[in-house]
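Progress report, Aim 2. The chain analyzed during this reporting quarter is listed below.
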Amino acid sequence: MREAQDVVLDIVGGPRLPDFLDRLNPNGRYVAVGIVGGQPPADFGTRLLANFRRSPSFAAFSADTVPGPDRQAVRAAQSADAARGDLRTAVHEVLPLHQAALAHREMDAGRVFGSIVLVPRARRRRYGASPDRPVRVVIGPGRRGACARRRTARPRRR
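Predicted structure tokens for the chain:
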């Protein structure tokens, strides 16, 4: 069994949401901050109450409840931070692209904090990458099927 947690912040949701309730310590807190993976199953409330004697708590947050001007102010501040280079990503590990299967196994096992960066070495020249500007494929954070893909270098025009 995986290590129990005091707090679970779930940005994916979906049908596996109740599985993570079982990973809470007694008096643990589960916070759903997104449901990009879809709604939880219909029996979610039953699973929550099945853990009643362990005193879990569940909370949900949707950005839809934040007034538009407040959301815009936060986004403007985040954009300014990004432009200054003040935002940092938690990178767990950088691996060559051919080790993508290992990256997925590590994430599925819950041993990853942050992101795993996969570097496709064969395409570096095609995308104008250099050691200071590599082409990256980022997997995570999240569960299987919730992967993100991003290039940090643009293709050269011919």
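Residues 124-129, 134-158 have pLDDT under 50 and may be disordered. The longest strand covers residues 24-32. These observations will guide the mutagenesis work planned for the next reporting period.
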